[in-house]
UniProtKB/TrEMBL annotation:
<feature type="domain" description="RelA/SpoT">
    <location>
        <begin position="234"/>
        <end position="295"/>
    </location>
</feature>
<protein>
    <recommendedName>
        <fullName>RelA/SpoT domain-containing protein</fullName>
    </recommendedName>
</protein>
<dbReference type="InterPro" id="IPR007685">
    <property type="entry name" value="RelA_SpoT"/>
</dbReference>
<dbReference type="GO" id="GO:0005886">
    <property type="term" value="C:plasma membrane"/>
</dbReference>
<dbReference type="GO" id="GO:0015969">
    <property type="term" value="P:guanosine tetraphosphate metabolic process"/>
</dbReference>
<dbReference type="InterPro" id="IPR043519">
    <property type="entry name" value="NT_sf"/>
</dbReference>
<dbReference type="Pfam" id="PF04607">
    <property type="entry name" value="RelA_SpoT"/>
</dbReference>
<comment type="similarity">
    <text>Belongs to the RelA/SpoT family.</text>
</comment>
<dbReference type="Pfam" id="PF13328">
    <property type="entry name" value="HD_4"/>
</dbReference>
Length: 295
């Protein structure tokens, strides 16, 4: 990816970023990553830019985005730490070091997942941004997991399900958790994954059509009743989440009521209960499937 195009994409996502810092990081990384290519065939430079874009979409700050661009500098490019500190200061150097150190834990095959989890929490205690960058880095790694031998695929996939996805959940990044789990699921439990995909492919295509139909209808009903709607969005249940729920219900599809989740954002608690009442009046709830949440 060209730097100019990358910067333009960032400006569309968040025009308030420190583009001087990010541009300097891009040119520094481009120089130092020169000739470095991942096993998938993608350059390390492009890999880091893609991670940076995802972090921008998650509303992370300029230092985090610069760190994502530079996060392979110490380990892969063998750039001197003091040079990095001179160019970008102590904060970004600290973050790059944090990501590098977590990466070293990741590559220690003998280390058990629970130990991985402890050390990741230590990193998080120092700066939570280190963990978020690492989570997005793992997501991108899973997308090219097929280039590794089967035993490594399974090890990394299980580690993702046991360590990285729960971390994303604890940090409140539910969509990232779902993406991590779905990508890992295919490698950790390939037979179960394929069986589930075969069962849901027709259901999910119907769900997508239903989502497109139901969102404007729900909004129309709420607005007509005087409820201000900030946002409505919906998605089909993630595959791994669906698989775990089916396991809890003896693989009985008739006990799964939430293949699609609809989230309605309103301005206050009063509007929330008003919206709930209107929706229950319009669409009869399945009582045993209703879960009330206060937040």
């Amino acid at each position: 990816m060209e730097i100019e195009r990358f910067i333009e994409e960032l400006k569309k996502i968040n025009p308030n970023l420190n583009f001087d810092l990010i541009t300097r990081a891009c040119f520094f990384a481009q120089e130092n990553y020169q000739g470095l290519v991942r096993r998938s065939g993608q350059t390390y430079f492009d890999h880091c830019l893609e991670i940076a874009l995802d972090l921008a979409k998650m509303k992370l700050d300029s230092s985090s985005i610069a760190t994502a661009i530079l996060h392979e500098i110490l380990e892969r490019a063998k750039t001197d730490k003091e040079r990095l500190k001179k160019e970008f200061g102590p904060e970004i150097t600290f973050l790059v070091e944090g990501v590098t150190n977590v990466g070293k834990i990741e590559h220690q095959k003998a280390v058990r997942s629970i130990e991985n989890l402890r050390k990741l929490f230590l990193a998080m205690a120092q700066d939570i941004r280190v963990v978020v960058i690492k989570l997005v880095n793992r997501l991108h790694g899973l997308k090219t997991l097929s280039v590794f031998p089967p035993e490594k695929q399974k090890r990394l996939a299980l580690e993702t399900l046991e360590v990285y996805a729960p971390l994303a959940y604890r940090l409140g990044i539910g969509e990232l958790k779902g993406q991590l789990e779905d990508l890992a699921f295919a490698y950790a439990y390939p037979q179960e994954y394929q069986k589930l995909i075969n069962q849901v492919k027709n259901k999910y295509s119907q769900i997508e059509a239903y989502i497109q139909k139901i969102i404007p209808l729900v909004k129309k009903v709420l607005v007509r009743e005087g409820v201000k709607v900030i946002e409505i969005h919906a998605r089909a249940k993630h595959y791994y989440s669906l698989y775990k729920k089916l396991q809890r219900h003896d693989m009985d599809w008739h006990r799964i009521y939430d293949l699609v989740a609809l989230r309605i954002i309103v301005p206050d608690v009063e509007s929330c209960y008003a919206a709930l009442g209107i929706i229950h009046k319009k669409w009869k709830p399945v009582i045993e499937a209703v879960i009330y949440r206060s937040s």
